[in-house]
Amino acid sequence: MTWQGLLDAYRDYLPFAGDIRIISLNEGNTPLIQADRLSGLIAPGAGLQLYLKYEGLNPTGSFKDRGMTAAITQAVYEGARSVICASTGNTAASAAAYAARAGLRCVVLVPEGKIALGKLAACLAYGAEVIAVEGSFDDALNLVRQIVERQPIALVNSINPWRLEGQKTGAFEICDQLGGRAPEWHCLPVGNAGNITAYWMGYRQYGRGLPRLLGAQAAGAAPIVEGRVVERPETVATAIRIGNPARWQQALQALDESDGIITAVTDAEILDCWRLLASQEGVFVEPASAAGLAALRQQIALGAIDPAGKTAVVVLTGHGLKDPGVAVEQARRPRSLPAEVEALERYLVNRE
Ligand code: F0G
Questions:
Q1: Which residue's C-alpha comes closest to atom 11 of ligand 1?
Q2: What is the pLDDT of residues 327-336, one digit of tens each?
Q3: CA distance 202 to 184
Q4: Residue identifier of the C-alpha nearest atom 10 of ligand 1
Q5: Which residues are bridge partners to 34 per DSSP?
Q6: What is 96-156 written as a DSSP string?
Q7: Rounded mean pLDDT of the chain?
């Protein structure tokens, strides 16, 4: 049977009306990649079964498509003509794509100068109206919360419960891909805290066992870890540059119920794991997506997580091509050579 998107695949687990028209780009069904080399690096000899859920392979390059197929499907069903969101970039790109497919007007508010190039390019290509707000993501989210009280426009941030309905299917897929069981540890980056909330909903609903959750915030944007709003969040991982998460309370509840951990990882740790994912396993992600692995490595090193014989899934939330700027900054410069075979041979033999 061909895959027709996650609303079709998991229809029985979703509370949509029977006659609903699904707006889909065949999202979901992303690979769960076993990462033995990384397992050996972060937990040598422990027999840790480490898996990468590569969400960057969704249609617009991030996990947001799971929530957006659901939110846009429901918005169209309810008669919306326009949608709006605040975003660090991925939600915006996803909203723009699904709105285009549904024929809706799409307005996205992003923090000025703090959105990765691949995300901006996608929003513009899909025809969204992009508004650069002079402020943070949190400021932009405040604006959209207010405007939907005044204007007939549907909000598609993860405050919208349909976003979580779609995103919870990630948990279903992981259980299915592991042969009908949940992992012991489920690790992921935390920004606005919609995804951690959605995954917990999904694991609970699916009934294939419950993992312990490991949430990762960037050290310069770690309100949940620090227990206070961060006024000026800062991190290389712009996707999770958020100081006042909308689903803060639900995230705490999920962490509590799962006997989980939430921790902060530095930009250096994030970039180190970002490099390892690409260089050791061939999986290229955007910086925020490496935070879950950084947190797992940190907690194993601290002795807070015992990896022996365990299964851990790390969610890689966005594709590396989302943020070409950071990738190029971090990389070695390409080698320049004359177009002569001798020059190439000299390089190969002597690396000079
Ligand atoms: N990873 C990536 C690549 C993201 O884009 C986001 C959130 C997260 C992790 C964190 O997920 O917010 O559910 O805790 N990006 C949002 C956006 C804020 O606007 O694209 P979360």
A1: 191
A2: 999 988 899 9
A3: 15
A4: 191
A5: 51
A6: HHHHHHHT-EEEEEEETT-S-HHHHHHHHHTT-EEEEESS-HHHHHHHHHHHHHHSS-EE-
A7: 97
Tokens, residue 288:
């925020």
What are the DSSP E strand ranges found in 141-224?
154-155, 185-189, 212-218
- Strand arrangement of the beta sheet that strand 105-111 belongs to: 129-133, 105-111, 82-86, 154-155
Q: Which residue has the tokens 């402020």?
A: 135
- Tell me if domain 6-61+163-329 and domain 64-159 are identical in fold: yes
Tell me the backbone φ, ψ of residue 153, rounded to 5 degrees: -140, 135
Q: Which of 196, 156, 138, 141 is nearest to 315 (CA)?
A: 196
Query: Which ligand 1 atom is nearest residue 89's CA?
Result: 20
Range 64-159: architecture per CATH: 3-Layer(aba) Sandwich (3.40)
Q: Is 250 in the pocket of ligand 1 (CB under 6 A)?
A: no
Q: Is 90 in the pocket of ligand 1 (CB under 6 A)?
A: yes
What is 6-61+163-329's CATH topology? Rossmann fold (3.40.50)
**Domain residue extents for the chain:** 6-61+163-329, 64-159
Strand 154-155 vs strand 261-265: parallel, antiparallel, or unpaired? unpaired
Helix or strand or coil: residue 71?
helix
Supply the pTM of this predicted model.
0.97
Strands 82-86 and 49-54: unpaired
Q: How far is the CA of 351 from the centre of ligand 1 (A)?
A: 41
CA atoms within 13 A on the CB side of 290: 30
Q: Kind of pairing, strands 185-189 and 154-155?
A: unpaired
CA–centroid distance, residue 315 to ligand 1 (Å): 12
Residues 13-37: b if buried by 16+ CB within 10 A, e if exposed: ebeeeeeeebbbbebbbbeebebee
Task: Write out pLDDT tens, residues 149-164.
Answer: 999 999 999 999 999 9
Instruction: Decide whether any atom of ligand 1 lies within 6 Å of the 60 Cβ.
Output: no
